[in-house]
Amino acid sequence: VNDTTAMGPGREFDAIRALVRRWGPRAKGIGSDAAVLQIADGERVVVSTDVSVEGVHFRSEWMTPEEIGWRATMAALSDLAAAAARPIGVLAALTVPPLWRDALVGLGEGIGAAAETAEAPIIGGDMSDGVSLSLAMTVMGRAMHPLTRDGAHDGDALWVTGTLGGPALAFRAWSGGAQPVQAARERFVHPRARIREAEWLRAHGAHAAIDISDGLVADARHLAAANSARITIALDDVPAFEGCDAAEAAAGGEEYELLVTAPTSLDARAFVDTFTLPLTRVGTLSRAADATVGVTVTRAGERVEITGGYDHFSP
Amino acid sequence: VNDTTAMGPGREFDAIRALVRRWGPRAKGIGSDAAVLQIADGERVVVSTDVSVEGVHFRSEWMTPEEIGWRATMAALSDLAAAAARPIGVLAALTVPPLWRDALVGLGEGIGAAAETAEAPIIGGDMSDGVSLSLAMTVMGRAMHPLTRDGAHDGDALWVTGTLGGPALAFRAWSGGAQPVQAARERFVHPRARIREAEWLRAHGAHAAIDISDGLVADARHLAAANSARITIALDDVPAFEGCDAAEAAAGGEEYELLVTAPTSLDARAFVDTFTLPLTRVGTLSRAADATVGVTVTRAGERVEITGGYDHFSP
What is the pLDDT of residue B70? Predict the structure, then answer.
């Protein structure tokens, strides 16, 4: 049963109706001006918005419409994971050029599958014409005690979920005109927001978290800045994807894994047993004077420079 | 004082920092993965997302960057007004092509001014490169008793705020290569979300509401569909902007005025005294069998056809 409010006539609304039919019970209340949510006493509402633009975040030759929809949705949900928030709703604002209209149901299917995996109904959105495909995904979540970027304690260790470098490998293959190996491609097109993992980490003592969308080192820099801290990362400890150098794994973005700070006593084995996903200690964090805030990367004890981390506004 | 979480280096983050500096105390907590909000017991959270795309919703020759930012933000806030919700936060996901980067501060100023007018802090967003300027604005609000589209009672009268047709006049002038008169232009570039007006209307007995973004008749069709009702609108009663025919006023979109259903006893004079804004009874609503759900428009008692209402997906 779908409680979608009826909409008037028009091709734009026909397109929305087709999506909503496809979503079935995964959509709730679409067709109103705004979605209405009820929040339990004492819980915080966590919200984030994330845009995926054709030609900037992905190329249409690389992915099916389903994969584009999935990836855009999970990328947004990953920001909720960073806050250890449980998803309560997804809003999809889609800019769909004429050439993409036939792909709309596929895009919707990917959005719906990702939302369903994260147990979040699709509660709203918008649809517009335009010259390039763009998915602006807004996600809402709830948490009694959200994790933030800036809660690190002096002396925390730095832990990362998963294995890094798959998306970088896929990107490198595509950019060179080749097809990536299937496992690397999967990491790019089917990221998973680490929702349950984040709740576990918060419950087991994590102090601060960020998701690795810009790359391990680039996001560690955000974490360092947010905590006025010096972070040291040992490349030798970075869990690299097969076929990927540790430096590439540490620089590559689009991971949507979590980087958390926690006491060195964190029980990584219990995490691995629960989620069948690696949790690896990759560095340390210590409070620092302003001039020394930042990230140091070492290999075999020697300091190395890591560049990279995607910056849309680089020349 | 700004509690923006520190961000790491990078030109994208420099651009965000420049915006946040410009916003000053109007921005809160930007730089985290997600914004965190506290909601009072019993209140509902209302959320909506709305995209404004260059070349679809506006042309850059028509408006300054400040006006583009203002209009995109107010268009989104207008969906909160339709729910009689009080704004609690704005998220701005901006796709900014290279040619628009110098205009970013102006866009931000318009977004900030609109958010400030609506008493909503800017709590998050995203920034991306792209080939055309796009502003995906997500707005959050709170309400103990949100108004919805589908709450109309059989026999309600239909009331509209403000004077209609200004944006249509401006659009017509621009499309013909002329400059619109200043008052009509203002209605297009500086819409006002009817936040306080909506709260008043809800408190004084309104049953259902929608904002007129698609046009009076087109949005009345949505209202009819949502309530399984027949709506009759008398063009003779439509409050038309000076220089605008009632039919054009009833068809033109981009108004961001409110269309509400309420008992015929609604005290319009008290509304006008409070807000110095017209509130005009333009029609009636009655429950209808499926085959007769829709909108009838009359002029001097004769039925007329109104086309229009912007549809992005029309050929």
Answer: 97
